[in-house]
Amino acid sequence: MARPIRVNGDAFVEMISERRIKAKIKSLAGQINRDYQGKIPVFIGILNGSFIFFADLIREIAVDCEVDFLKLSSYGDAKISAGNVRLLKDLNCQVEGRDIIIVEDIVDTGLSIEYMRHLIGPQNPKSLKVVTLLYKTDSVKPGTHVDYIGFRIPTDFVIGYGLDYAQRVRNLKAIYRLLPPKKGKRTPAKVQV
Ligand code: IMP
Which of 56, 99, 105, 108 is flagged as catalytic? Predict the structure, then answer.
């Protein structure tokens, strides 16, 4: 196993490499390009976490499109969901009659997706779909529907590629998962970030 990196005293190890992320984004974009032929969808990025995924995905999109952003409250400094979602920045675009694609970095409990469906649904979009890079299979609420899923992952806390830990480490190129604390033995850290 690759040597862990340390953030705020916690150890993280690489889970998904930059190369695998790039390949997955090409495949997701390929599906979206096929499904939206002849349409002009509006991609809505959920800030802050999705900004890197959003930028990489949109550059693989071959159909004409528009973009906009929503900002929702995040975990803050914690590693688990607070269980409530707040809107920090609303949309600027017209939703009615448009093909909307919500772009999420990660679906954990699914509360954010549910919140956005309730926010955007009543504005009568022509269609409403969700794409996420990561999907935590075991923690997501039953009934949470996501149309395009990059990687299905266990309920580990993950960082990098836009995902933060207390607002830090979003700039890591790969995705790292938190290692459970080991009793007794300590693995030396490769990088301190
Ligand atoms: P949900 O509403 O519980 O599905 O959580 C979605 C949001 O929580 C994401 O957009 C992230 O901002 C944040 N989140 C969920 N899991 C993680 C994680 O493992 N690391 C960092 N942020 C996460």
Answer: 108
